[in-house]
Amino acid sequence: MKVGIIGTGNMGSVLASSFIESSAIQPSRLMVTNRTLSKAERLQNAYPKMKVGNNPEEIFRFAEIVFICVKPHEFYSLLSSNKNSISKHQLLVSITSPISCEQLEDLLDCNIARAIPSINNRALAGSSLVSFGKRCHPDYKEKLLSLMSCISTPLVIDENITRISSDIASCGPAFIGYVLQCFINSAVDQTDITKAQATQLASDMIIGMGKLLEKDIYTLPTLIQKVCVKGGITGEGIKILSNEVDEVFDHVIKRTHEKYHEECDKVSQQFEVKEELK
Which of 183, 200, 179, 181 is nearest to 191 (CA)? Predict the structure, then answer.
């Protein structure tokens, strides 16, 4: 199986590195490209046997499965200008939430799927979110799930929960990382602990917490219960958090969904051009 990746930004690079390091794909059977070609070439420095295509057309002509890792507003132009290079026997995989499989199936005759990765996949961990177009062949469904299983726990989802699933699985590391950084900053500002010490403790804490959850030793509610001894210090901290943090993620989710719908509207306007030209 030959795989191509168009776009070597954050997520494109995560996919390339993770596929190679998990042995899901031999480097010689992976080709990447990027609008700024030097970025793809820098990635090749880490994996010398990986191929670099000069343009998207080379990727489409090389690969059986092609991951499109560009920004949502770049999809229509990229795909419409390379339409003649895309075979109906290929699988095209989008990694972005504002573009549906249905929209891509209206534009192209090939097999369509979506696989939204997470930064956690770089450690061969975390979830990936998978959806399939109506025409996607069962063999390709199996191949994509097998490929994503090498670097993540793939979860097949419906369109209506795509955004919130991405908020949790894909945006979540940034959200929780920001909260944890605020915790570290407050510890340094209000006590004598150094930033290095606080960062080490916080990092060890979140890694250990993850292992407790991974091994099913505790769930999140039972973990809170075990640490939060009645009448103890942790309980006082929880009281503050319950008063000041409970509604924060309501606001976060509201805003991410607003932004998502803004992006969907912009993308829809581009894809509607095809309908008007019929």
Answer: 183
CATH class of domain segment(s) 3-158: alpha beta
- Please state whether the predicted TM-score (pTM) of the whole model is above 0.70: yes
pLDDT digits (tens, 9 = 90+) for 224-259: 999 998 789 999 999 999 999 989 999 999 999 999
